[in-house]
Amino acid sequence: MKSKLYLFLLVPILMLASCEKWVPDGQQNIVGSWRITSVEQQTPYGSEYVNTGYENGVFYFGNNGNAQYSDNYGQMNGTWRLLSHPSESTNSLQLRLYDNYHNDAIEWEFYSVSLSGNRIIGYMNRYGYDYRYEFRRY
Predict the structure, then answer these.
(1) How many folded domains does the chain comprise?
(2) Tens digit of pLDDT for each residue in 36-54?
(3) 35 φ, ψ (degrees, to nearest 5)
(4) H/E element, 111
(5) CA gap 59, 46 in Å, rounded
(6) pLDDT by residue (tens digit) across 83-96?
(7) Domain-embedded: residue 44
(8) Contacts of 47 (CB under 8 A, 6+ apart)
């Protein structure tokens, strides 16, 4: 009987541990202003630097999930979401920014992201290539 009780308690714990979890604001040091310092495309021959066109602007991550990007040409508004994947010991980041006036959009999904102090490093796969983005606190 006791073994059935332990099994009954173990199943919900395992299910909860494997789920994606939204990391509450403030736990991760992402809130604030950031700039892209480098983007590298990973190729079979090594890596090469890429210009995204967003290096001259500032990204802002608000504490309520709102996001902005602004540069000399205008501003985009949207949302960010940081997810924790406990079973894989990783975090991922979703960033959605839109500017309807200039018909521009950023829809980035970093499958792995690490935050340490004044630096964010995120990895994204687009068009069959992996990219490494590095942001620094502005």
Answers:
(1) 1
(2) 999 999 988 999 999 999 9
(3) -125, 145
(4) strand 104-116
(5) 28
(6) 998 888 899 999 99
(7) yes
(8) 40, 41, 132
> In the block, which residue shows the tokens 């959009």?
105
Whether 7 is in a domain gets the answer no
Residue-range definition of the domain harbouring residue 83? 20-137
Interatomic CA distance for residues 108 and 110, integer angstroms: 6
Give this prediction's pTM.
0.79
* Residue reference for tokens 């839109």: 98
Closest CA to 108 of 116, 98, 118, 119: 98
Write down how long the chain is. 138
- Other CB atoms within 10 Å distance of the CB of residue 97: 20
Helix (H) or strand (E) holding 7, with range, is helix 2-17
- What CATH number has the domain bearing residue 91? 2.40.128.280
Domain membership of residue 10 (yes or no) is no
